[in-house]
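[job 4417] fold queue: 2 targets
>>> target A
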Amino acid sequence: MGTHAITRLRRPAIFLAAAGAICACSIVVAGMLPRLQNANAVAVGVTCDLVLIVPALYYLLLVRGRRWPAFSLVPVFIVCLLAASWILPAEHHGLLTGLELAAVPLELGLLGYIGWRAGRSVRSARRHMREGGADAFSAIRSAARETIGVPRVADMLAQELAMFYYAFGSWRTPLPPAGDGFTSYRKNSYSVFLFAIVMVLVIETIAVHLAIYMLWSTVLAWILTAISLYTLIWMIGDWRALRLRTSTVTPDSIQIRLGTRWDVEIPRNDVDYVGPPTALAGNVRPLKLVLIGEPDVEIRLSRPVTARGIYGLRRTSTIVHLQVDDPARFVESTRGPGPTS
């Protein structure tokens, strides 16, 4: 890895360290204000450090340095305002009050911009689905990357949007025909396991909500309930994605899809072996694409392949272990006609 690449990787860490140091120093100085004769001037300096210097560092290191979207400056500026209002005593909020007034149109502009980008993402996702078939997750991910421009952030957003789509918007989408792909959730009884977890989650959510609501805090009860409901939505979306996104074998590639958890496309030219798992050397770490239990298929490659995981996670290896409901048919399909080129 070159020096330039290392520098790019370190820019977020440099920004976080610098912002943390400024906040720590500001807290110390704010505690000394009652004992200072020029307290107002010092408070103005602290406000500038928090509200102006930190966003400026963000712009230099990440917006210019890593080409992050410029609109992300607005939430950083707002967070800095909130931090300054918490750190500085109320009697030293003079400059801060003026900056907070300036933040109002920025917040409204950001909301409008987010709404515009959201509409653009929806239109883009629909276009990708029309052009590339019925794989909604790939369409959502491509649309998010086009709209946001930062791949890692776009992948994280796409993961969340996909979970809601599969939980609420995928029920009219027919399941793939029985022989049109390879599923990975039937043989291991994942649906039964998930149903049991969902039932326990629902019962526990109701019991915990009532207990905390009556004995402790109404706000905390609703916060925990919201977290449980989000978990429930995520689990339902994950189950639907596993049923709709199946692995396929084509003359040119092996496309492995484990719901929205893992995606990897393996060129057929790179495949050396497909069959039952074999003993591996101690320093070999395979990609294990399994829901529950042990893998029943191994794919060995002549060169590494990279799998895209949940929230943009990446894993690279020359060996892929997976679990499919019909491993014999999967292995046989990979021994058919190879690349057409």
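>>> target B
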Amino acid sequence: MTLFPPLAAASLRHALEKNEPLRIGALANGAIALALAEIARAKFASGVDIPALGVFVARDGLRQAELHGVMQALFPDIEIILMPAWDCQPYDRASPNAGVLARRMEALSRLVRTRGGSRPRLVIASVNAILQRLPPRDFVARQSFSAAPGQAIDLNSIAIWAEANGYSRVSTVRDVGEFAIRGGLVDLYPPGFADPVRLDFFGDTLESIRAFDAESQRSNANVKRLDLVPMSEFQLTSEAIRRFRQRYLAEFGGNLRGDTLYEHVSEGRRHVGMEHWLPLFHETLERFDAYLPGASLILDHQAEAAIEERFKQIEDYHEARKSALDEAAPGVPYRPLAPDALYLARHEWAVLAGSAIALSAFETAPGGGVSAINAGTRKGRDFAPERMDPKANLFDAAASHIREMQRAGRKAVIAAASEGSRDRLTHVLADHGVT
């Protein structure tokens, strides 16, 4: 099934090949996934060999999760990479959740270490994720760990690697980002794994790698090889600590008494919220397009308004932190970095968005040097009025709508949440004359 008629499909292919801006209108909510699939396939058909063929920017995290689930369910021929944003506010004192950091590093590692294969590839990001600067590609590529049975590996090197990459040492591994060492056993719960893994050593020789259930702690499957990515977007190596200290002093001066962030990092200890000073741990940070060269940028309906709102939020939070610091507010001082150290500047985003494909639920027309096509989809029948009206019968309305479709020669497909729900709907609709 194709969403676009031949003429519109030709316009889409032209925009993708020339990297020119395009507006796609009349895309009802349920048709967004179809449009993304056709864009990814059209880009793939052009024969390019890049880490990702397209990056879709959802207007918020809920929309991102929704589209990710739909794309995975409906289009198994397309490789979907989810790129989440930090789940904390700009200039927060809290760190991003370890699971979120793990999924981000897994996505970046896939983009750095692999290229498009035998099927189209699409990255699904959010507005917050796309505006945030990322660790350098060589850092992601370099800070990995591989192991296979039969190899000689120093147990201490595993502990050093795990701690440097943000894993937490625990007595019993249950959550992503944890590790434990007990005698000749090393348990790790890496990002992207359904279950934690257990490395069984005899001396320095790795004898086996097995997955195990986090609740029962019982092994359940053999693993032939283990390839791990960092759990954090920086490492507390001696070089990173030295770089942080130098840049922190250059940025904020030498009067750092009571600054627990500076003290903890100087001691090689992790500090809650230290991710908000990420630029100080690296030589430089990179924009998302450094990981996605040649990919087409696809903007969700209302994404541009969400982008503007995000810029304002970043500026407001930064100004609040600056004001508190200037006024010497009580408590541990918070010394914020400039917004463009952590996030894209407005002018950078304007350049990147200049060649984007913008999706819209409304009819659109060419203008301002930008071509436009319309998908011609429309919103389906909404039964919200009947749900809200205590005098209305929802199933009468549904049955009436189905009969209208049948009289028009169209087929009705009813989707249920489960087999039990499907069976109940079958009986209820039968009582209303739909067999």
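[job 4417] complete. Note on B: The mean pLDDT is 90.
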